[in-house]
TrEMBL record:
<dbReference type="InterPro" id="IPR017871">
    <property type="entry name" value="ABC_transporter-like_CS"/>
</dbReference>
<dbReference type="Pfam" id="PF00005">
    <property type="entry name" value="ABC_tran"/>
</dbReference>
<protein>
    <recommendedName>
        <fullName>ABC transporter domain-containing protein</fullName>
    </recommendedName>
</protein>
<dbReference type="InterPro" id="IPR027417">
    <property type="entry name" value="P-loop_NTPase"/>
</dbReference>
<keyword id="KW-0547">Nucleotide-binding</keyword>
<keyword id="KW-0067">ATP-binding</keyword>
<dbReference type="InterPro" id="IPR003439">
    <property type="entry name" value="ABC_transporter-like_ATP-bd"/>
</dbReference>
<dbReference type="GO" id="GO:0016887">
    <property type="term" value="F:ATP hydrolysis activity"/>
</dbReference>
<dbReference type="InterPro" id="IPR003593">
    <property type="entry name" value="AAA+_ATPase"/>
</dbReference>
<keyword id="KW-0813">Transport</keyword>
<comment type="function">
    <text>Part of the ABC transporter complex HmuTUV involved in hemin import. Responsible for energy coupling to the transport system.</text>
</comment>
<keyword id="KW-1278">Translocase</keyword>
<feature type="domain" description="ABC transporter">
    <location>
        <begin position="12"/>
        <end position="248"/>
    </location>
</feature>
<dbReference type="GO" id="GO:0005524">
    <property type="term" value="F:ATP binding"/>
</dbReference>
């Protein structure tokens, strides 16, 4: 994703951040900056702390040690509503137990911008229609959200987050249930919004090729620590992939997509260990 240098400035700054779940460490000594105007991919093995990091960036969790700054103000000092006008999170699991319509769920994204008893205006409804069209859920607008497929629900979750008009969007495996067409459509949509300015994306991804294609920067977590962070071309190396996932890889420029293409295989020792 081509990044515009002039628009970049630290959006989040983490200083010596640890996090533990009831005494069980999940993240250790994170010191990093996430720049505005970029798409940053957070990658790492299962359990390496990716979702925990997103929840910390969203202000849903508080560091056990260290500090997180958002727009040069301590994240803990932001008022919830004020933060919700700037920041939206698409969680890994979209849990809505009630039979709200898709339109009603997406409209929840408007709440931080509405007065206490205000109803959405005609312009707000147009905005909801636009984000539903962009995420491919407009045709589902009157359907109960609990009766949608997993991939459809995931697109509704993204639509609700975009309806929030965030400057920063945190995505936790938001394409995990999407087919290839909807995956590419969503990532292109977000890339275009980042390129147009005014949106920063931090996305947890497992697919290294999607990360190579749509991210500007990557941050690899391993065992709750930040192993490396930087521009995709510097970070996506066989050495780093081996250190993080323990697998062998070959990386080349792909003539079809013009992005880096990663081919993976189990390292001989892991292949022997996996043999019956
Ligand atoms: N609510 C919780 N209570 C206790 N431990 C938790 C909780 N949530 C996560 N953990 C633990 O914290 C560590 C980091 O979990 P996290 O969900 O952040 O990993 P992840 O990198 O997002 O994993 P995945 O790729 O599997 O989604 C793991 O060891 C996990 O078991």
């Amino acid at each position: 994703m081509a990044a515009c240098k002039e628009r970049q400035s630290p959006l989040w700054r983490l200083e010596g951040v640890d996090f533990a779940y009831r005494g069980k460490p999940a993240l250790h000594d994170l010191n990093c900056v996430l720049q505005s105007g970029l798409c940053t991919g957070i990658l790492g093995p299962n359990g390496s702390g990716k979702s925990t990091l997103l929840d910390l960036l969203a202000g849903l969790l508080t560091p056990t040690r260290g500090r997180i700054w958002f727009r040069e103000q301590l994240l803990a000092k932001w008022r919830r509503r004020q933060l919700a006008r700037q920041l939206a999170l698409v969680p890994q699991h979209f849990g809505l137990g009630f039979d709200f319509s898709v339109r009603a769920v997406v409209a929840m994204g408007l709440h931080p911008h509405l007065g206490r008893f205000a109803l959405p205006t005609g312009a707000d409804q147009d905005w909801l229609d636009l984000v539903m069209a962009q995420t491919g859920v407009l045709a589902l607008a009157e359907r109960p959200v609990t009766r949608l497929s997993g991939g459809e629900q995931q697109r509704v979750a993204v639509a609700r987050a975009l309806a929030q008009k965030p400057e920063a969007l945190l995505l936790d495996e938001a394409t995990a249930s999407l087919d290839v067409g909807h995956t590419l459509a969503l990532l292109h949509l977000l890339r275009d919004k980042v390129r147009a300015g005014g949106l920063t994306v931090v996305a947890v991804l497992h697919d290294l090729n999607l990360a190579a294609r749509f991210c500007d920067e990557l941050l690899f977590l391993h065992g709750g620590r930040c192993l490396v962070q930087g521009p995709v071309a510097d970070i996506l190396t066989p050495e780093n992939i081996r250190a993080v996932y323990g697998v062998d890889s070959a990386i080349r420029a792909d003539a079809f997509t013009h992005a880096l293409q990663v081919s993976l295989r189990l390292a001989p020792r892991e292949r022997a260990a996996a043999a019956p």
